[in-house]
Amino acid sequence: MSEEPQKIVALVDGSAYSASVCDHAAWLSGRTGAPVELIHVLGRREAPERPDLSGAIALGARTALLEELAELDARRAKLAGQRGRAILEDARAILDKAGVAQITTRLRHGDLIEALAEVEADARMIMIGKRGEAADFAMGHLGSNLERVLRASHRPVFVASRAFRPISRMLVAWDGGASAVKAVDHIARSPLFQGLETHVVTVGSATPEALEGLAHAKASLQAAGIMAETAVLPGQPETALGKLVDEAAFDMLVMGAYGHSRIRSLIIGSTTTAMIRSCKVPVVLMR
User: What span, in angstroms and rounded, lies between the C-alpha atoms of 20 and 161?
Assistant: First the structure.
């Protein structure tokens, strides 16, 4: 049995990716029996902020203008709250239709990372879309909130692709680093990954160290009842992994958030960022 916390936390913002986040959350819930908590965070700019006009009493027309601006801010905040509740209702409807039994919703004001810190202790997975409302689709930029979540979260992060498709084949990127070891351990312990066709690959040269690492990963998964194929791919991770995902029709990529050799500080690795940006399938990241 898994000892993971039970809740799946799905972050929804009304972007094109929100429906996909919900579809993937329903899939995760169906495989694990976990409840889903839907969270929409209203940014500080969307919260009502009535300015202090006490020092402007003698400003005449400007006082009236400031009051009008304050009323406008209040109306904007009210509309943002109504929109947030509508986003959560739409998300709940998707989960209801998919048969998710336990659903909760939470509308929060303030900072996304602060909201995440409050709930992630009870979460087995954090789910977020690759891009949010403000992301530049044409440039392939990652959403700014996604990058912040990846840096801040201590739980596995499931980065949803643009649209859901059934998941049966999983590619696990292995580089021998602590994040990769943790990813394999998590896969072995979680019911989410049971029954998926699993391939573990490392990119680079077939050194004794690389082969030993792959053998260790395979043995760990096999002990959990997961039969995995292993391979060494030539080239650079940024291109080789993405090419393999496309050519071999993998449905999901699992990898460590931090690389073994390149990353020594608490920043998301360049390989990780490149893979999320280029992959057309969901990416699960482990710290």
Answer: 7
Residue 40 shares a structural domain with residue 144: yes
Name the 3-class secondary structure at 254: strand
Residue 211: domain span:
169-286
Query: In sequence order, what are the residues at sequence separation of 6 or more whose Cβ sits closer than 8 angstroms to the Cβ of residue 32?
Result: 2, 8, 124, 190, 191, 192
DSSP secondary structure string for all residues of 86-126: HHHHHHHHHHHHTT-S-EEEEEEES-HHHHHHHHGGGEEEE
**Distance of alpha carbon 79 from alpha carbon 112, whole angstroms:** 19
Same domain, 123 and 264: no
Domain presence at residue 69: no
Burial class (CB in 10 A: 0-12, 13-18, 19+), 214: buried
Q: Write down which residue in 160, 194, 226 finishes a domain.
A: 160
Nearest residue to 164 via CA among 260, 263, 24: 24
**CATH code of 234's domain:** 3.40.50.620
151 & 38 share domain = yes
β-strand 283-286 against 157-160: which pairing, if any?
Answer: antiparallel
Q: What is the pLDDT of residues 220-273, one digit of tens each?
A: 999 999 999 999 999 888 788 889 999 999 999 998 876 554 433 334 566 677
Domain final position from 160, 190, 207: 160
Q: How many domains does the chain have?
A: 2
pLDDT class of 45 with cuts at 50, 70, 90: low
* Average pLDDT rounded to a whole number, residues 46-74: 70
Number of neighbours of residue 257 by Cβ within 10 angstroms = 27
Sheet holding 36-42, edge to edge: 103-109, 36-42, 7-11, 123-129, 157-160, 283-286, 252-256, 169-173, 197-203, 228-233
Q: Is 98 exposed, middle or buried (CB count within 10 Å of its CB: 0-12, 13-18, 19+)?
A: middle
